[in-house]
Design goal:
The termini are close together. Strands 1-8-7-6-5-4-3-2 form an eight-stranded parallel β-sheet. The chain has a single domain, classed as Aldolase class I (TIM Barrel). The chain contains eight helices and eight strands; from the N terminus they run E-H-E-H-E-H-E-H-E-E-H-E-H-E-H-H. By secondary structure, the protein is α/β, with parallel strands linked by helices. Bound molecules: D-xylitol-5-phosphate and zinc ion. The site of zinc ion has 6 residues, from strand 2.
């Protein structure tokens, strides 16, 4: 089954509670955390997750686009996040980061940015719940889908099948009905979409349409 998580990066920050209230049919809320160092942009942090926790029952996934994810895992878990995704090249010891997520009861996610080879994730797939393939270079919402990602999703899906590893495959960046379908066909099962959902006149319908895609 396809799971859809709206990214609030391009939602109206002055009315976040209302924005999230528009996508009650989503499977989770995706929160993009940027530190101005790993990526050249700043976004949201722990206080925002704490505030969102009070206004939604949906699972909250934090996408840690930061240089030192280990430092933030516990604070985000305490703020009410349900899952976290870190970028594989940001830590010296990915297994330690995964362990940290585990002790904090978080769904464990690992990401390959657009410029990162998908093979970099392979040694850690048996230990995570979710592998994210960035379909844009992390840092900004509203970018165009990078077609090279389709090949990376295929490689990842092939590897997971070969090794009989069950883990979700999430795509993030430039996802709409057309690119989302391409990713699902390549082997993804979780779609993150920002612009497609929150720039839509009817965000719930946009979520519904993405959820209804059939690979
Ligand atoms: C990009 C973020 C994405 C982004 C998605 O750095 O990780 O989650 O907000 O936004 P769209 O769907 O607009 O590309
Ligand atoms: Zn993201």
């Amino acid at each position: 089954m396809v799971k859809v998580g709206p990214s609030i990066l391009n939602a109206d920050f002055a009315h976040l509670a209302e924005e999230i209230g528009k996508v009650k049919n989503a499977d989770f809320i995706h929160v993009d955390v940027m530190d101005g160092h790993y990526v050249p942009n700043l976004s949201m942090g722990v206080p925002v997750v704490k505030a969102l926790r009070k206004v939604t029952d949906l699972p909250i996934e934090v996408h840690l686009m930061v240089s030192n994810p280990d430092r933030f895992i516990k604070p985000f878990a305490e703020a009410g996040a349900n899952g976290a995704i870190f970028h594989v090249e940001t830590v010296a010891n990915p297994l330690q980061t995964i362990k940290l997520m585990q002790v904090n009861d978080l769904v464990k996610g690992i990401s390959a940015n657009a410029r990162v080879d998908i093979e970099k994730l392979f040694p850690f797939l048996a230990d995570v719940d979710l592998a994210q393939v960035m379909t844009v270079e992390a840092g900004f919402g509203g970018q165009a889908f990078n077609v090279n990602a389709v090949y990376k999703i295929q490689q990842l899906a092939r590897y997971l099948k070969e090794k009989k590893i069950a883990c979700d495959v999430e795509v993030d960046g430039g996802i709409d009905l057309e690119t989302g379908l391409r990713c699902l066909k390549a082997g993804a099962n979780v779609l993150v979409a920002g612009t497609t959902v929150f720039a839509s006149a009817n965000p719930a319908e946009a979520v519904e349409q993405l959820k209804a895609l059939k690979p």
